[in-house]
Design brief:
With about 60 residues, this protein is mostly helical. The chain has 2 helices and no strands. It has one domain. About 0% of the residues are buried. α1 runs antiparallel to α2.
Length: about 60
């Protein structure tokens, strides 16, 4: 997340050449996509835990990340 913030700050300063700005933007979008994937997996894990609690049976499983 820190990398994304750093990239945003660099782009907001507007001091990078266009080509480098595009590369940094692309890199930032890839990081955001990874963060979204991690968040989705975490949400699914939480939903599974909540569903198990409703049954009175709580267990956890490791996710392949």
């Amino acid at each position: 997340m820190g990398q994304v913030q750093q990239l945003v700050e660099q782009l907001e300063q507007g001091e990078l050449p266009l080509e480098q700005s595009l590369k940094e933007y692309e890199s930032g979008m890839k990081l955001v996509q990874q963060c979204r994937q991690y968040l989705t997996e975490a949400e699914l894990k939480v939903e599974k835990i909540i569903a198990q609690q409703a049954d009175g049976n709580v267990t956890t499983e490791e996710l392949d990340i």
